[in-house]
Amino acid sequence: MSVHLRDEGPPGDPVPIVLLHGTSSSLHTWEGWVRELKAKRRVITFDMPGFGLTGPSPDNVYTLESYSRFVMAVMDKLGVQRCVLGGNSFGGHVSWVTALTYPGRVEKLILVDSSGYDHRSASVPIGFRIAKIPVLNRLVANILPRSLIESSIQNVYGDPGKVTQELVDRYFDITVREGNRRALVQRFKQAPSGGALALRVPELKLPTLIIWGGLDRLIVPEEGDRFHQEIAGSRLVIFDDLGHVPQEEDPVRTAAAVKRFLNIP
Known about the structure:
- Helix content is about 40%, strand content about 15%.
- With about 260 residues, the chain is of the alpha/beta class.
- The protein has a single domain, classed as Rossmann fold, CATH 3.40.50.
- The chain has a seven-stranded mixed beta sheet with strand order 1-3-2-4-5-6-7, sandwiched between helices.
- Helix 3 (about 90-100) links the parallel strand 4 and strand 5.
- Helix 2 (about 65-80) packs across helix 3 and helix 6 packs across helix 7.
């Protein structure tokens, strides 16, 4: 399949930073971080199967295992042997599962409001709720009002006032790309949070940075505490005024935490 990808920064960086977006997002969510990091480090971002401009998976498979294999396939294609792997929300879930599955390929891990546990949500975006409901999810695959996208984005921001019309336009355009809405329904069916994999989080032994928005209502901060407790030696940084996508809301402050973690001057 064709993959929408950006490869920026020094090409000779031996351990690039690979960043994975969350559900219904795209590589654009990392643009702020890339601006902050690419002067010193090679940063690779891409749209995962079912999302953005990469679009649906040809085989209609959206399991966590398939996403991990996809990440490895992209790294192999780019000749990347080892990386710093990071992800937000579902991208965080894929990141830590990939680190468990391919430990030799991941040097360090960055989890940003990551999913993976049977989490408790204080508030779930309406688009996500509909995508999980039989019959209704068939409707969202064909009909999707822009207002629903806007309210869903506002739901995951700590400060809804930061949600611009340009941001809504971008999310709407990538969501209505042919096949993406049907893929979203399958993603929720095939790659749920929790289960046996969540019991393996304590097996992660690599240096790990955990970033969380204190106002995250989709995956509450207590989940970040749990990752921190179960991943030995991990660092936890909470931004009290940010929501579920802190890398978008305040890329400068959140990327500064990454620079400290990776010793980037």
